[in-house]
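re: the backbone from monday

yeah here it is again, tokenized this time
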């Protein structure tokens, strides 16, 4: 075996700073990961030039078996961010790795709402990439802000609308803690983004919402008029016009 040779360095990194252990973890080679973990000359938490650790690669590629294995150790930081401030949870949410997300959000040492360098959280990435199950998981929590804007003033629902994720847009429109009329730093709204991208179903969804709001507002005005004892808009008397 190569590991038995004295002239082989099992911890040597490539030009990107990734070690054999990092590659094994990211590609789901659990047997090799276990084999390398038995050695004392392997650093299982060594980051590459982008600041990503083997745990980050395992989480971001949905290798939940390796994620669980590494979490049993004391020398693994499950919330360590890379050079773009992206955590293992963010990578898992971004790439749609639901099982890994479940593992990580159950831990107290993982911040589920931690943003990256651009102000984008795990929820933001999940919504923007159309990962409905992960969006639902994160919405169940009280420590996740589903309307948090990034450095460009764009919110998760903005990204979902931009990429035509109708189901997620509808899910967020049904909530009371989302501002669907908020424009980003460039003045773009959900509606303008959906129109620009040609997402017909999202445009129709937003139009239906607008019509409901208009109808609801009219009904509210009518109710207020009744409460004040005034004639409703449709019942207001015509002005008498003198003909002579």
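seq for it, each position gets an aa:
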């Amino acid at each position: 075996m190569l590991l038995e040779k004295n002239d082989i360095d099992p911890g040597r990194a490539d030009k990107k700073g990734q070690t054999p252990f990092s590659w094994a973890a990211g590609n789901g080679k659990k047997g090799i990961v276990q084999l390398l973990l038995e050695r004392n000359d392997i650093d299982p938490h060594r980051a590459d030039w982008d600041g990503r650790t083997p745990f980050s690669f395992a989480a971001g590629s949905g290798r939940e078996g390796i994620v669980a294995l590494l979490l049993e150790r004391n020398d693994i930081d499950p919330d360590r961010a890379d050079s773009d401030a992206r955590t293992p949870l963010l990578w898992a949410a971004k790439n749609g790795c639901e099982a890994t997300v479940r593992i990580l959000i159950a831990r107290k040492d993982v911040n589920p709402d931690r943003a990256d360098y651009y102000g984008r959280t795990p929820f933001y990435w999940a919504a923007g990439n159309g990962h409905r199950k992960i969006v639902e998981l994160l919405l169940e929590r009280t420590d996740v802000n589903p309307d948090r804007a990034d450095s460009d003033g764009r919110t998760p629902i903005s990204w979902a609308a931009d990429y035509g994720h109708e189901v997620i847009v509808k899910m967020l429109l049904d909530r009371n803690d989302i501002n669907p009329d908020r424009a980003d730093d460039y003045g773009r709204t959900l509606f303008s983004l959906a129109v620009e991208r040609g997402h017909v179903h999202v445009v129709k969804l937003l139009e239906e919402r607008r019509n409901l709001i208009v109808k609801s507002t009219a009904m509210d005005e009518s109710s207020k008029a009744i409460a004040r004892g005034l004639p409703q808009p449709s019942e207001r008397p015509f002005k008498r016009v003198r003909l002579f």
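The chain has twelve helices and no strands. Residues 214-227, 232-244 have pLDDT under 50 and may be disordered.
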